[in-house]
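Case study 2.
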Amino acid sequence: MGGIAMRPEVARFARKVLGLEDSTALQAAPLGKRGSDRAFFRVTWPSKGSAILIDYDPKRQENCYYASIAHFLEGIDVPVPHVLGHDPASHLVVTEDLGETDLWSFRGSQTDLREGLYRQTLSAVQRFHSFPEKEFPKKRVPLMEPFDRHLYQWERDYFRGHFVKEVCHIVLNLPFSGALETELSRLADRLMAGPRCLVHRDLQSQNVMIHRGRPVFIDFQGMRFGSPFYDLGSFLCDPYVELTDEERIDYLSAYYSLSDWGYNWDTFTDLFWEASAQRLMQALGAYGFLGISKGLRAFLEHIPAALNNLDMAASHTTDLPHLRALVGRCRAVWTERIGRPEGAAP
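Prediction:
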């Protein structure tokens, strides 16, 4: 495999954690960009070995927590990449190489094969969802602040600012904006009133690698305490994968049978759809921010699916009429834009 020569200090660190001789030549092949202020490289050497090098920006606080969270999750039998070494001073992490196959790669596979992988993933999710908060080693494993009123506020502001305003160029009038804020604030209250557990925070198909036939979680540096339904909404209303209604409910039922949150099925599904709406607002905000502010235009391609899923989630509850009306306006704007020549004004 071709690659680029590594900086001497990075190569020294990599050789040390990989147990290689000082004279071993290393090559680093850049991997695809992700939206987390981290650079990923596949490191190879003449004996055909490989590992993943992560060069992260410590200004994004959650990046500093990746290695310790990985060690914790591995210790409770949650499948994650094994961390071979971490140099906090140089902001470098070396992990095992899981290959290039993620759950997203199976989106067009036979139903039985994909179903098995989804069920395995949900079983592994339940493993960290069920870890008792009172037993979590918070002094040894720092996490981002838990989901609270401020974070839910930030997510809906992120949606309105980076998606509604910057992507759709919609300016909300004051009466509608106030009614929407009241509606979404009450949504946050309902989610906070429910159970709290460890959540991945970005549980979607491209953050689940398939290695040796089993799912392995990546990009969990934003893990924190929050609603389990947020993770379920992330995973089962993932804009990157089209699930049928039957598949989505089957998978949700599989998780329900593993969990013990004390809800009947109707209440459980109500919370699922509400949390899905919250998550999809965050995702659309991220697509706008990454696609426009960061110039990663590929993220904009997922907007139609995310809008469809948000409309679907909002339609399953009678408590989000203003959100659903706003989604309708955004879909109309996006549909109109598709018909314009490249670069035309919105």
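The chain has two domains: 4-96, 105-338.
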